[in-house]
Design goal:
The protein has 316 residues and is an alpha/beta fold. Helix content is 44%, strand content 14%. Helix 1 links the parallel strand 1 (4-7) and strand 2 (30-34). The chain binds nicotinamide-adenine-dinucleotide (NAD) and serine. Residues 7-8, 10-14, 34-36, 51-54, 74-76, 78, 92, 114, 116, 168, 170-171, 178-179, 181, 183 line the site of nicotinamide-adenine-dinucleotide.
């Protein structure tokens, strides 16, 4: 059985990935960790360790203690927050990654580190963005992601480290709120709709970005790490998507189920500039062909599940 360490377990992805992996590999085989002391289900259902992933010593102690053979490295500062503090974005994103790569090399671990649609920039073809194309991002977040992709491929080629990654689009979920990204509006809009509030949208109408519902993202993280390595032509990192929309399209999807829902626009210039530099829609054919990527949720199916889940969560 795998012995897994998840770094950054308290975030939007980690808080759900811990539960998913513990369900597959067993509670005792999945060690959750975060910079913050977490509480609740994550610490009650299996091992938890506090780790600052910019400290290689702290990660090594935990890898040795639990005989870890697989690391999911989720520590990062998301795009909009990183733009406010670029050095923090670089230090956490790259500091955590290089520590994990060195540990994976020395202790023979497999390593998953998510990349992002943020790894593309304004020169990238915007529609059906190819797997292999121009990557000249203009955000510090994107620069860390491209660097991360290249470092991860380098460690695979140079040392044979089993590094794998996907370029996640904006992730939509109902357990933990997102941590300061450009795509956060696509989560926040559901909270406003279910609470009966008018939504103030920070992204302009007509701005398309790729998006994905969390259950598909969780499957992707399991399936890519279970994929037959002989089938992987690419590694770091695979384009992934399951839907692409602008604010009007998601608003109208919600209005089908909450007809009184209202939205107005108040554009956030930082988020809008970032969104303008990202693709409209990715081509994820390589992920489909090389390891069977096949998302289950489209926009309307996600909307029904989001509304239902948030109503239950809020007791409405
Ligand atoms: P998040 O901001 O919600 O969570 C990040 C977690 O990392 C937090 O719990 C935080 O406490 C922790 N952390 C921060 N600094 C740390 C450090 N030094 N040591 C240990 N832990 C630290 O982020 P997320 O949305 O869960 O994203 C996880 C990864 O997925 C990131 O690499 C992100 O770039 C990538 N990604 C996310 C999305 C998305 O829409 N959520 C999309 C594309 C890529
Ligand atoms: N959701 C992420 C962000 O907006 C995409 O990488 O930062």
């Amino acid at each position: 059985m795998k012995k897994i360490l998840i770094i950054g377990s308290g975030g939007q992805i980690g808080s759900e990935l811990v539960k998913k992996l513990r369900g597959i590999y067993g509670n005792e085989n999945v060690v959750a960790s975060d910079l913050r002391q977490l509480t609740g289900e994550i610490v009650e259902t299996g091992p938890f360790e506090r780790i600052d992933s910019t400290s290689i010593v702290q990660i090594i102690e935990v890898v040795k203690k639990y005989n870890i053979d697989t690391i999911y490295n989720l520590a990062a500062i998301l795009s909009a927050t990183a733009e406010l503090n670029p050095m923090l974005g670089w230090n956490v994103g790259i500091g955590s990654l290089i520590n994990c790569l060195e540990i994976a090399r020395v202790f023979n671990c497999a390593l998953f580190t998510p990349s992002s649609i943020g790894a593309f920039g304004p020169n990238t073809p915007k529609d059906l963005t190819p797997q292999d194309t121009i990557q000249r991002p203009t955000t510090i977040y994107g620069i860390t992601k491209v660097t991360g992709e290249m470092l991860s491929d380098y460690y695979f080629r140079r040392y044979g480290v089993d590094t794998r990654s996907v370029r996640f689009p904006g992730l939509i979920s109902n357990l933990t709120l997102p941590g300061g990204g450009t795509t956060d509006y696509a989560v926040e809009i559901y909270y406003a709709a279910v609470k009966g509030e008018k939504f103030v949208c920070p992204i302009e109408k007509g701005t398309f970005m790729d998006m994905m519902y969390m259950p598909d993202a969780l499957d992707a993280m399991v399936n890519i790490m279970e994929a037959d390595p002989s089938k992987l032509v690419h590694r770091n990192s695979f384009n992934l998507t399951s839907m692409a929309f602008d604010p009007e399209i998601i608003y109208n999807s919600i209005k089908k189920y909450i007809p009184d829902f209202e939205m107005e626009y108040k554009i956030d210039p930082i988020k809008q500039a970032i969104a303008n530099s990202w693709p409209n829609s990715l081509d994820d054919t390589c992920a489909r062909n090389e390891w069977g990527w096949n998302p289950k949720y489209d926009l309307d199916k996600m909307t029904v599940d989001m509304i239902d889940s948030l109503r239950k969560k809020m007791g409405l």
